[in-house]
Amino acid sequence: MRMSIGYKGKVTSLEIVLDRNGSEPLYRQIAEQIRRAIVDGRLPVGVQLPTVRELATKVGVTRLTVQNAYAELQSGGWIESTVGRGTFVSARAAVRPRWSAANGAATPAGVIGDILQMGAGAGVLSFASAAPDPHLFPETEFWAAFESERQRLREASSYGPAQGDAWLRVELAAHLAERGLPATPEELLVVAGVTQGVMLAAQALARPGDSILVEQPAYVGFLHQLRTLGLQPVTVPVEKEGPRLDVVEQMARTHRIRFFYTVPTFQNPTGYCMSLSHRRQLLALAEQFDFSIIEDDLYGWLAYDEEPPIPLKALDRTERVLYVSSFSKTLAPGLRLGVLAPPPALRDRLLGLRIAADLGSPLLLQRALAAFLHRGEFRRHLRRILPVYRERRNALLAALARAMPPGVQWTKPQGGLCCWLTLPRPAPVGEIPRLALQQGWAVAPGSVFWTNPEGERNLRLCFGGLTVDQVRCGVEVVAQVVRQQLKLTAAPVSPEEWLPLV
Ligand SMILES: Cc1ncc(COP(=O)(O)O)c(C=O)c1O
User: Measured in angstroms, how far is the CA atom of residue 340 from the centroid of ligand 1?
Assistant: First the structure.
């Protein structure tokens, strides 16, 4: 069957040939031929596809068959349907995600850009981004919270206090208390995500050229920030219990350390959680060697097995912890709203830096979040999402155990969104993400989470945005690529050389 489709004054044609005796279901054959026409450019972005009824009649199949074909294309991001308007080739079909890390020369900023665009392309499912599932966003409840602020819209359309809306800070103080962190609204600063909170904290504590401690591996966004600020990273390996305290001590003896940036609870990229005794000992070292701690508690609410230890900030008796968290992993990264709880002596300096940066966060959004928290919606939302992420984490661990070749190890995260794989030998890890992407799967290469290129044996898999079936299917693909690559590389290194993280 061939049919003509008009688009922007031009006529393009869609040809569908079915093998009615083949084993491939008819809907799949239709979907695949439309997908190929999109990839080839025969069906450009924005072109309107025939209606279900039209196509079913022309091709000689039932409407259900065409509906299933369209549903498959839609779930892959190739097409979009709008009620009353029709079905169109999606703008996502034009995005061709690519790993710049595959050539081994990627900068943290380049990789962050890569990760952000991985979910934007059609036909790509992503283990690469440590993002929550947008399908779990509490749309109705958040919208109702937004609506409830309508009467005060005029007031909320002005500049707000740079420190953050007073009502939101009251709600944030109550929110942090649930995480075991006592704080008054006056002590808190609303920030544009952890990213901004960490940036302000680092600017307040250190100058270009200063040495700071950072976990290895570490969150790639912070590696980008420290480069931008001209800070000198001194690295501390991370183990199951937390960062190696003997190394912290040794480095603090030999360097003038300004601060230690740590993600103690369900770290990105490893998923590890620092034990309570480690937290206490780290604070004692900070006091002994007089350095500050920037505590990134972005994942602290996402605990799947048992409650994690209370934040370092809650144990801090000498006012040296700057605590930062946000709603990016529990609600939505697009909100760009978070909280910074510094020692009181630093508050004014941080406020000055915030005013210099952007004067403050959008007032309307802050009020909506305050209303959302005030109504108890955050707690209800957490109760809904935790079992979903727990099931996905379990599916990931079970699939890895089934599919990965011998010698591959991985962490067992008790919370958060990340799992860290260690291969038995340094396969060309940049190659694995590249090959997985060819099969429609994005996986972050481990090398980008190190300050030096040690990550040739690591991959990070984030499970938050994928259904259980997608997790299973993706692990099969990644395991197959890992198997192929390991075959191509030399003999295993001795187990003692493995990272002691699993
Ligand atoms: C450890 C860590 N810190 C900070 C961020 C960025 O957080 P936000 O969206 O709140 O700026 C991320 C995002 O992945 C992260 O994993």
Answer: 13
Q: Is 194 in the pocket of ligand 1 (CB under 6 A)?
A: yes
* CB within 8 Å of 97: residues ≥ 6 apart: 114, 117, 118, 120, 121, 124, 437, 442
Q: Which two tokens stand for residue 444?
A: 């972050």
C-beta 268 within 6 A of ligand 1:
yes
CA of 108 to the centre of ligand 1 (A): 14
Predicted TM-score (pTM) of the model is 0.87
The response to whether residue 397 sits with its C-beta less than 6 Å from ligand 1 reads no
Closest ligand 1 atom to Cα of 327: 10
DSSP H or E stretch at residue 369: helix 363-374
For ligand 1, whether the C-beta of 101 sits within 6 Å is no
Burial 13-27 (b: 16+ CB within 10 A, else e): ebebebeeeeeeebb
Instruction: Note if the bond before 500 is cis, omega within 30 degrees.
Output: no
219 lines ligand 1 (CB under 6 A): yes
Domains defined along the chain, listed by start: 2-94 (1.10.10.10), 100-136+383-497 (3.90.1150.10), 139-379 (3.40.640.10)
What is the amino acid identity at position 171? E
Sign of CA dihedral 103, 108, 109, 113: positive
Any ligand 1 atom below 6 A from CB of 221: yes
Whether ligand 1 lies within 6 angstroms of the CB of 417 is answered as no
What string of pLDDT tens digits covers the 502 residues of the chain? 666 665 555 667 788 999 998 888 999 999 989 988 888 888 889 999 999 999 999 889 999 999 999 999 998 888 998 888 899 998 888 777 777 755 555 677 887 888 887 777 778 889 999 999 999 999 999 999 999 999 888 888 889 999 999 999 999 999 999 999 999 999 999 999 999 999 999 999 999 999 999 999 999 999 999 999 999 999 999 998 899 999 999 999 999 999 999 999 999 999 999 999 999 999 999 999 999 999 999 999 999 999 999 999 999 999 999 999 999 999 999 999 999 999 999 999 999 999 999 999 999 999 999 999 999 999 999 999 999 999 999 999 999 999 999 999 999 999 999 999 999 988 776 788 889 988 889 998 888 898 876 557 899 999 999 999 999 999 999 999 999 988 877 655 544 444 445 5
Distance 130 CA to ligand 1 centre (A): 8
